[in-house]
Specification:
single chain, 915 residues, alpha/beta, Isoleucyl-tRNA Synthetase, Domain 1, Rossmann fold, 10% strand, ATP-binding
Length: 915
């Protein structure tokens, strides 16, 4: 395998050090920053690990973890938490600090100040555990990764203050390691740093708001984030004063939804789930749920939006499943299409149409594209060697063959891939092959097939890709995977198979064959739309008016970015091609993989049986959506996020705001007289709202969710500081203040209901009903306005969320734990990956940690409240006041225990003992 790095780039440091620390058998290739295939990426200094299988890893942390995994070191939960924290919090902050150092000449001490809270987090964890390394007594991948992030900024430990003693000791010990010294000497050379500095000087400064959006850090300290200007405060107050009158009116599209001239017409597809099995949580977040969230956002923006999907039903996997269950392929498709539809209905996926590929329209459109390719000379005929079962009198598709793996000797390898070693296999290479249908021994015979002439189409593909990348929004992994496919030149691609179940090939000599599912399946987007409306061509042959968004997991990328576009370009019929290709990484399950056969993980038909509402599942899956690297579902983390983020943060704020209106003001929003403090809050909330829009417009769905939670944190803090429950009992001025705080808070809750709709539609609808939000106000604006004016009446307010108990979660963890042998590979995320996929699941398994920032904040609040209680007792304050503050302290300790994944301790009784 080859590790390609560009000297000078900070990301190269950690991967070179990790390769040395793990003694990885890797060939180091030094390249310039503009060398392809690195150029299309966001940063030209990103490293790339090219595996022997053809897979390419380009996430620095994933590369580092791969080296350690290959050495046999299994990741622990603690290691995974550090890797996630480094990627989401430390790296963005360190990048910003490095920019100021190199471009503006800031010194190391100033960088330490910029990283203050993050360095304190490392110090706290090292000190608390009393270990020499981050994840235990021995050096792990976490130590190399975090050191590699910090070293370019700090260079040495002398810039670290003496109070960070544990951090200083750890940093020095890491820096003195031979592998780290050699990595620093080879990567951070003076010449390379000058080149990197020159690159940075041409880039815009890192956005602090964007950094916070990827780091989970709530904006509570003005000085640490964005300092509000008077212009921003005034603008926010003016927008608030204009009220609902300036909101755009909600637009209801015609049915069926068709492009409208002069509007933004958004066509959304999610990778068609394969019909032969039940989707698991990874399938759902990778495709349909991500697309649904964006579709709902588009509709709230009054963009004319069509979202289509359906089951992919042709191919070998369907025939195989039919044989297993003793049904016909059509019966299998009917059965599982209904299962899929029920699951997505329960998850509240807002398809405009959910169809299937086994329709006459599929045959008509696929055969038309085929005939156009044939007429334009983009198809080739060739003879290939293939296994034939003489007893069944048929050539055997890959999945109808089983035998001994030629690489690892696993005796139950499939004809396309070995489930033990993960290697891709050509079926004729299997040892001792058997026909899965009759257990006979197949023989190798020649057979003719048709191929898509990708080399001939490449001259059309390349300029189209450059144009789409320049004007559209492609995720970094989608760009890289695409470039890795075309880097060494495309090769002809077989588009026919010797099967019965599929779209027939309309050409003499091939009429006993069907189209290969990966040529045929993406055409399903068109045929499904055609089943929705006979005016489907207004969407699919209208690139001038339509923006196409494709959502998928990363293993589906090349078929949507190379093969399908080449088919449409070659057909030359003014087809709409993808503008925005949105690909996720993989979602894993706890410390392993989803597996239906082994009972591991939550599958779509099981989620509703857990008793956890669909919106909670939606929230958690979107909260840990694997946008930049693999993430993992964790039962403990689900409990923590539900109890801390939803129950104690979001739900607590919305419930309090509504209850104050009901309890103190008879259910009517009171008059509001804004103070400078209130106007600053309006500006803060407006900044979060702007960030929410910016992130969702770039389809950074997970990061935009943090903005919602940050606004509710601002709201809770606003209520806590102003204490309207006390002021309502005071004089006229205090009562007025209580009314203002309550009115502003309930309007924040109203805005959150709209922002929350793409993520938790049922909860959003519940808030709308409780607060009686007018339908005309249920639209997303870029400004925070007063949509519930004085005099507006709210309805009955009740809690939105329920606490998840540890016993309940442990029972669910045990129920879905199964028994997972370590020697079996992951089941695919989105579809049955074909043998040519070249993109097996990434080796890194990253478990979503409890929120380190939240833990740190709660720790600080516990300490602060504890000091407050001690001071009251020392001053002999009234017992009722002391008891109130002690109760607050106990509640904070409870929240901290939950955030750390612990069971809160029940306070011991302090009643008098009997004599």
């Amino acid at each position: 395998m080859r590790l390609r790095v560009a000297a000078g780039g900070p990301a190269a440091l950690k991967v070179v050090a990790a390769a040395g620390a793990a003694a990885a058998p890797v060939r180091l290739v030094w390249g310039g920053p503009l060398e392809r295939p690195l150029a299309p990426l966001i940063s030209p200094w990103v490293p790339a690990l090219e595996l022997d299988s053809g897979t390419v890893l380009f996430s620095p942390n994933a590369i580092c973890q791969f080296f350690f995994l290959a050495r046999g070191e299994e990741p622990t939960d603690l290691t995974n938490q550090w890797l996630e924290w480094d990627a989401t919090e430390l790296q963005p902050a360190a990048a910003a600090a490095l920019y100021t150092q190199l471009v503006h000449g800031k010194k190391g001490l100033e960088a330490v100040e910029a990283l203050g809270k993050l360095l304190a987090h490392i110090e706290q964890n090292l000190s608390r555990r009393g270990t020499a390394y981050l994840a235990g007594d021995t050096k792990s991948v976490a130590d190399v990764v975090v050191w590699g992030t910090l070293f370019p900024v700090l260079q040495d430990q002398t810039s670290l203050p003496s109070e960070l003693q544990a951090l200083r000791t750890w940093f020095q010990s890491m820096t003195l390691l031979e592998v780290c010294r050699k990595a620093a000497d080879s990567v951070l050379t003076p010449k390379a740093l000058l080149e990197f500095k020159s690159y940075l000087q041409k880039q815009p400064p890192p956005s602090l708001a964007m950094e916070r959006a990827t780091s989970n850090e709530p904006e509570e300290e003005e000085g640490s984030e964005h300092v509000l200007t008077e212009e921003e405060i005034t603008a926010a107050a003016d927008a608030w004063a204009r009220g609902a009158a300036v909101l755009p009116k909600p637009w209801q599209p015609q049915k069926p939804v068709l492009p409208v001239e002069g509007m933004r017409n958004i066509l959304i597809t999610s990778a068609l789930p394969y019909v032969n099995n039940v989707p698991h949580l990874g399938n759902i977040i990778g495709c349909v749920l991500s697309a649904d969230t964006f579709a709902r956002y588009c509709r709230l923006r009054n963009w004319n939006t069509l979202y289509v999907c359906g089951t992919d039903e042709y191919g070998t996997a369907t025939e195989t499943k039919a044989v297993e269950e003793g049904l016909t392929p059509q019966e299998i498709c009917n059965k599982y299409n209904a299962i899929h539809a029920d699951i997505y209905r329960w998850f509240n996926i807002s398809f405009d149409y959910f169809g299937r590929t086994t329709t006459p329209y599929q045959t008509m459109i696929a055969q038309d594209i085929f005939q156009r390719l044939l007429a334009r000379g983009f198809l080739l005929e060739d003879t290939v060697e293939q296994l034939q079962c003489e007893d069944c009198q048929r050539f055997l598709a890959d999945r109808f063959v089983e035998g001994t793996c030629p690489f690892c000797s696993y005796e139950e390898a499939r004809g396309d891939q070995c489930d033990k070693c993960g290697k891709l296999i050509n079926a004729v290479e299997l040892k001792n092959p058997q026909c899965k249908l009759c257990r006979g021994v197949p023989v190798v015979k020649p057979t003719k097939h048709l191929f898509l002439d990708l080399p001939k189409l490449e001259e059309q593909l390349e300029p189209w890709l450059e144009q789409s990348w320049a004007t559209g929004n492609w995720t970094a992994n989608a760009r890289y995977i695409t470039r890795s496919w075309i880097r060494d030149g495309l090769k002809p691609r077989c588009i026919t198979r010797d099967l019965k179940w599929g779209t027939p090939v309309p050409l003499d000599g091939f009429r006993d064959k069907v189209f290969y599912v990966w040529f045929d399946a993406p055409i399903g987007y068109l045929s499904i739309t055609a089943n929705y409306t006979d005016q489907w061509e207004r969407w699919w042959k209208n690139p001038q008016q339509v923006e196409l968004y494709n959502f998928m997991a990363k293993d589906n990328v090349p078929f949507h970015s190379v093969i399908f576009p080449c088919s449409l370009l070659g057909a030359d019929d003014n087809y709409t091609l993808v503008n925005h290709l949105i690909a996720t990484e993989y979602l894993n399950y706890e410390d392993g993989k989803f597996s239906k056969s082994r009972g591991v993980g939550v599958f779509g038909d099981m989620a509703k049986d857990t008793g956890i509402p669909a919106d909670i599942w939606r929230f958690y899956l979107l909260y840990l959506r694997p946008e930049g690297q693999d993430s993992a579902f964790s039962w403990s983390d689900l409990m923590v996020k539900n109890n801390s983020e939803l129950l104690n943060n979001l739900g607590n704020f919305i419930n309090r705001a509504g209850m104050f209106v009901c309890k103190f003001f008879g259910g009517t929003v009171p008059n509001m007289v804004l103070t400078p403090e209130d106007k600053r809050l309006l500006a803060r909330v407006t900044l979060e709202l702007h960030q929410y829009h910016q992130l969702l417009e770039k389809v950074r769905i997970r990061d935009a969710l943090r903005c919602i939670l940050s606004i509710s944190r601002h709201g809770n803090q606003y209520i806590q500081v102003n204490e309207p429950w006390k002021r309502i009992k005071g004089d006229e001025k205090d009562r007025q203040r209580a009314g203002t705080v309550t009115g502003v808070a309930v309007n924040m809750a109203s805005m959150l209901a709209v922002m929350l709709q793409p993520y938790m539609p049922s909860v959003s609808l519940a808030i709308q009903g409780q607060l009686c939000i007018p339908l005309d106000c249920f639209i997303l604006s870029h400004d925070f306005t007063c949509t519930l004016p004085p005099g507006h009446r709210v309805g009955t307010v009740s809690p939105l969320f329920q606490k998840l108990e540890n016993d309940q979660i442990e029972a669910l963890r045990k129920r879905f734990g199964g028994g997972q042998p370590e020697d079996l590979a992951v089941e695919p995320q989105a579809k049955q990956s074909p043998p040519a996929s070249e993109l097996p699941p990434a080796p890194a398994t990253l478990v979503a940690p409890s929120d380190p920032q939240l833990i740190q904040e709660l720790t600080e609040e516990v300490a602060k409240q504890g000091n407050h209680v001690r001071q009251l007792k020392a001053n002999k304050a009234e017992k009722t006041q002391v008891d109130t503050e002690v109760a607050k302290l106990l509640e904070l300790k409870k929240q901290l225990a939950l955030a750390e994944g612990k069971t809160p301790e029940v306070p011991a009784s302090k009643g008098k003992r009997k004599k």
